[in-house]
Amino acid sequence: MANPALRQAFAQKRFIVAPGVFDMISAKVADGMGFDCIYGTGFGTVASALGVADAGIATYSDMVARMGQMARGCRTPLIADADTGYGGLLNVRHTVMGYEQAGISGIQLEDQEMPKKCGHTPGRRVIPAEEMVLKIKVAAEARTSADFLIVARTDARTTLGLEEAIRRGLMYGDAGADIVFIESPESEEEMRAIGKAIAKPLLANMVEGGRTPILPAEKLKEIGYAMAIYPAIGFLAAAAALEKAYAHLKASGDSIAIGESYGFKRMTDLMGFPDVWNFESRWATKAAE
């Protein structure tokens, strides 16, 4: 079930910084670092699991399995991307129920047409705001605990303008969303306007190389935001490190110069090998007896 610590963090007015996680290694690394929340990125999860674009190809079954695995494997509350809810109102209800049962603490739903597209790429189209309002109401009704948070995202800014995006954000908050997420504002001035207009907790999406300026957490809080997600930071760093390591291996035929940059022992500790060895040692002794 949902972890109540996340709602408590919002109630205490702590600014929440949530790193993007996309597989169990990234999730476990982030889990040990003291964040209030981790964010299950759709882009990164689809890329790491399927090796394809975040363009509506992944299914509900793909995502609930992967996101649930990360949520159950971590102590830190996880908010997970759920695209459009994978269909109509009945699909949204099923998605919310499944995500909550999987141990996820918050679900992100967006108002794009299906198939959806990554929020910082071109060609996105949105459904009528009234249809999204119904999705949010269904989501609020479907959850069994108020600790399971609903993040309502609008992609209207890019195609319909900032005024329409703010109008939708207000509607979605009134419909029952706990957190409002206006995707891809294009300047600090636009972000300030969003912060002034919407009283519900606001989420900022900090994507390196995306449409929105990257602002420090202190600045985001000052202009009215309650939370920032960094969905790409993990998989961009991982891809850069892998490219460097593999290029060296290809060029030199060895890994000597790279060495243990993270450390094999640290990885075995992270994956729980000491517990395995302790278990095996105890039961080997009992078997010998």
From TrEMBL:
Pfam families cross-referenced by the UniProt entry: PEP_mutase
InterPro entries, A to Z: ICL/PEPM, Pyrv/PenolPyrv_kinase-like_dom, Pyrv_kinase-like_dom_sf
SUPFAM superfamilies noted in UniProt: Phosphoenolpyruvate/pyruvate domain
Cited Gene3D superfamilies: Phosphoenolpyruvate-binding domains
Domain of life where this protein originates: Bacteria
GO molecular function terms attached to this record: oxo-acid-lyase activity
The protein's name in its UniProt record: Isocitrate lyase/PEP mutase family protein
Native organism taxonomy: Bacteria, Pseudomonadati, Pseudomonadota, Alphaproteobacteria, Acetobacterales
